[in-house]
Specification:
single chain; OB fold (Dihydrolipoamide Acetyltransferase, E2P); 4 domains; alpha+beta
């Protein structure tokens, strides 16, 4: 644009200058990068200055790492003219304003925001969103994270769960994003799985009541009773975290997104061996696995136990099974009954011929335990028929045997001699 001054046509420089106020966000081009500041041409009468402290929310930054010469950037006007007549700008505050508008929109819509991890602080991580966003350690992942340093420099996608402009406070949750993603994956997996299907997975966790298996995004549970055909005291006896396993899908609760799995169903059922190879009356060697009040359980094959009722332990009366058997002892047992439907075996120890039980007669055991001695029985005296027998004298009647009590006579009084008169 041109102006006529004193009959001369000259450029209208004032018309080419940008009009702005303090607090406005303006665009400019980086024209010089110094050690502690950056000069930006925003179309004003003088170039704007961005101090290094106003370049980024990061601490102690190198201006050359934040901007490039010739790059067009946004900057917020801090002051149009400082004490030295300079236009002072801030890149980080311009970014801050834009970031707040974006974060507020994301908080309202529920859409995640992205930011890079710039610091590890007590209790969590700091993300650069244009503003400093705090990601608590408990919300970094679905599972607990032991080393937060491994996230430094990573770009994370998080949801805004708390926002306070007056305090410049932004709280984030990456866990919410991961759980939402996992939910979608779970639904896909649940649609694909069917009861009876055999799949592969990896043991992700072990608890007292079973083991969890990761099925590529959703966890299923193998209950302790479904780990092995044998008795299991703790799941760690059968599997370890990280093991790859082949399991069978037993049940799916689609509403609660729960999957019940079985490991023993993919292995040979030892009960079928019992049915196919043994009959009632067979005598087998077994190992006592448990002694209870009503008898003892004996394992005759790996994973197959039968009960020896207390009445089948010994020929004599047994007060407590522990008197006759103890865990881990090996002995022979006889099969009394095979209940195929209930998968139960009735066994007997006392009916095995030649069974050498470790315990003896119960009365002898009790006597030994109490430290008592057997009372000798008096031998029967047999009279010699050729030897003459003498008649025994009749016993004295009871009345005659009782002597009359002696009556104690009173002692005679002794008279003291009278004192003789003094002579």
């Amino acid at each position: 644009m041109l102006l006529e001054i004193d009959g001369k046509i000259v450029p209208n420089y004032a018309a080419t200058m940008v009009s702005f106020d303090e607090g406005d966000v303006v665009k400019g081009k980086v024209v010089r990068i110094d050690k502690d500041e950056v000069l930006v041409d925003i179309g004003y009468k003088s170039e704007g200055v961005i101090p290094s402290t106003e370049l980024s929310i990061r601490k102690s930054v190198d201006p050359a790492d934040e901007v490039e010469q010739g790059e067009e950037i946004d900057a917020l006007v801090l002051t149009k003219e400082d004490s030295e007549g300079r236009l002072i700008l801030s890149k980080k505050r311009a970014r801050f304003e834009k970031a707040w508008r974006r974060i507020e929109a994301s908080a309202e819509s529920g859409e995640p925001v992205e930011g890079s991890v710039i610091e590890v602080v007590k209790g969590g991580l700091i993300l650069d969103l244009g503003v400093r966003g705090f990601l608590p350690a408990s919300l970094v992942d679905i599972r607990r994270v032991h080393n937060l340093d491994e996230f430094l420099g990573q770009t994370l996608e998080c949801k805004v769960i708390e926002l306070n402009r007056s305090r410049n406070n932004v709280v984030l949750s990456r866990r919410a994003v991961l759980e939402e993603e996992r939910k979608e994956v779970r639904e896909q997996i649940l649609d694909r799985l069917q009861p009876g299907q055999v799949v592969e997975g990896k043991i992700s966790n072990i608890v007292d009541f079973g083991a969890f298996v990761d099925l590529d995004g959703i966890d299923g549970l193998i209950h302790i009773s479904e780990l092995s055909w044998s008795h299991v005291n703790h799941p760690s006896e059968v599997v370890s975290i990280g093991d790859s396993v082949r399991i069978k899908v037993l049940d799916i609760d689609r509403d609660r997104q729960r999957i019940s799995l079985g490991l023993k169903q993919t292995q040979e059922d030892p009960w079928q061996r019992v049915i196919s190879t043994h009959r009632s009356g067979d005598v087998l060697e077994g190992t006592v696995t448990k002694v209870v009040a009503f008898g003892a359980f004996v394992e005759i094959l790996p994973g197959v136990e039968g009960l020896v009722h207390i009445s089948e332990l010994a020929d004599h009366h047994v007060e407590s099974p522990s008197e006759v058997v103890e865990p881990n002892s090996k002995l022979n047992v006889k099969i009394l009954e095979i209940d195929e439907e209930r998968r139960r075996l009735s066994l007997s120890i006392k009916r095995v011929e030649g069974q050498n039980m470790p315990m003896g007669d119960l009365s002898a055991q009790i006597a030994s335990a109490e430290g008592s001695e057997e009372v000798p029985v008096a031998e029967e005296v047999v009279a010699d028929p050729e030897e003459p027998q003498t008649e025994a004298e009749p016993e004295t009647p009871v009345e005659d045997a009782v002597a009359e009590p002696e009556v104690e006579e009173p002692a005679a009084e002794v008279e003291e001699p009278e004192a003789s008169p003094e002579s």
